[in-house]
Structures are given as structure tokens and as C-alpha cells.
What we know:
The protein is an alpha/beta fold. The chain has helices spanning 15-26, 41-45, 48-65, 81-105, 158-162, 178-189, 203-213, and strands spanning 2-11, 31-35, 109-112, 115-117, 122-125, 128-137, 155-156, 170-174, 193-197, 228-231. It has two domains: 1-140, FAD/NAD(P)-binding domain, CATH 3.50.50.60; 155-231, FAD/NAD(P)-binding domain (3-Layer(bba) Sandwich).
Amino acid sequence: MSEQNFDVVVLGGGSGGYAAALRAVQLGKTVGLVEKGKLGGTCLHRGCIPTKALLHSAEVADVSRESEKYGVNVTFDGVDIARVTAYREAIVASKYKGLQGLIKARGITVIEGEGRLTSGTTVQVGDQTITGTSIVLATGSYSRTLPGLEIGGRVITSEQALELDYIPKKVAILGGGVIGVEFASVWRSFGVDVQIIEALPTSSRTRRSRSASSSSVPSASAASPSRSACASSRSRRTTRASR
């Protein structure tokens, strides 16, 4: 059994974890960063970055439909989801490589594996004992499902929605927050019939829902295969999908 000692041990290498690690190094501390998956966490790999890449593809689709308005003659022939996915993955890979380089350049020690807090100053990672004068917990969170809705098949999470290899014909999104509306915007631009289901009757969410559902995009029935999906927002977001 090996042991490593640091001024600060950060458990979790997502947005909060690596930001804390970088700040601790700036303050002259030695830092051990424990991560069981990939550095960057949800935001980089399953959240902010990939969804923004999708939004950019959606924007290009919208602009191409209206290109004549700008004096540019372009024919819109639809969306190639495989190439959209390749673009999204390339963006994520580039950001991930940059983050790895930054962490290494700052002298932060990355300990790969699942960490378990065993005391106020120690974290166990496999057969390694990681000791820190200070421990930062940045383990992230899990989304919750809704009673009676089992994840799988037609019901998917927002993370699973990112990995769809087809463009659904119809989608019902459970949750009208930022994540739900982002997916609604992307799918609407791709020609999908989208409905947002939101429990809170707030005016701001209502305006966003109406905006997403009334976007000036051609009817989905002519642009996408006869499949349907239901995606939910990420708090935990549950979705129903049918193919």
C-alpha cells in the first residue's frame, strides 16, 4: 500500500474540482487531484461544451435556410447527424487535450481511480492512501428520475440524447430549464417536432418554451425519419424515446 501527501487533495476532476486545484496551486500549495473518469467532468464531456457545439451546428442549419436573405445562394439538403457528432466530438477532444496540458503544466498530480473519503484528511484510491492537510469534495451529482419512468428505450436522459445516432421525428422534453431549451432549440433547427413540458408556470420559462416550439423551421415530418424521442433536462433528466 502506497501513500502520497499533499497540501490539498481534491476529490473530483470536474469544473469545480479542477478550478479548485488550479487556484490552490496559484496559492503555492501542492495538489493531488483524484478523478475516476476523464478530467473536465459533466461540463466538458456531457454538458456545456458538447451542447454548445450542437447549438452551433443548429445555427448553421438555420442560417443556411435563410442564406438568400444575405445574398448567398446555398441549398439546404438536411442534417448529417454522423458528421454533426464528429464535429461535436472533435470540439470536446480539443478542449480535453488543452485541459490535460494545463493541469500538467501547473504541476498538479492527477490520481486516477475512484476515491473514498476515509477521514478528514485522507482519501483512499484503490491501494493508495492520499493524505491532504485540506480536502476539497467536488464529486458532482446525479440526476434524478421520475417515479414510473424507467430510463431506457424511449425514455432517455440529456446525456443519452447527446449520443443519439439519428434525428428523431418528435421529442417531448421534460423540463423547460436551460438544458431542456437548449435541446429543444437544437432539435427544432434540425427539423424535429418539439414539445416542452414544464411544471413551473413562470413567465420566463413560458416565453422560452414558446420560442423553441414556434421557431420558423420547416415541418419535421419532411426532414427527419419516422422516429420519436423524449429527452429530459439534466437535473436529472428523464426522457421518453421511440424508434
